[in-house]
Write a structure and sequence with these properties.
Rossmann fold, globular
Length: 118
């Protein structure tokens, strides 16, 4: 079973849009999955350490800790996810090679393409 952590302070986007995108992709792959949520980077790090997910999908702009800082802290952890995704509406973000960037306007298409590469 795949474990997925979604970190986003926009609960509507996370629960209504992003979960549907993840579910659609994983159903196509016949994968069983478990999705856990966090509302900001601090909570996301706590959930990450407890749940040890396979995938992390985080928004960039959040209170308490931004998504890039969260992914930096995760990269220092003993457990490493199979893939991390950073979402934003800002096209100018510069991501490191271990992070896949997803523009929020193209979430379904890009998430499907990125997940197929893993």
């Amino acid at each position: 079973m795949l474990k997925i952590l979604i970190v986003d302070d926009d609960t509507f986007f996370a629960t209504q849009i992003l979960v549907k995108a993840v579910a659609k992709v994983l159903e196509l792959e016949s994968e069983e999955f478990d999705i856990t949520f966090a509302l900001d980077g601090v909570e996301g790090l706590q959930v990450f350490e407890k749940e040890k997910p396979d995938f992390v999908i985080t928004d960039y702009n959040m209170p308490n800790m931004t998504g890039d800082k969260l992914l930096q802290k995760i990269s220092e952890s003993q457990h490493q996810p199979r893939q991390s995704f950073l979402m934003s509406s800002d096209l100018g973000l510069d991501c490191n090679k271990n992070v896949r960037f997803i523009h929020k306007d193209k979430i379904f298409k890009i998430f499907f393409e990125q997940l197929k590469k893993v």
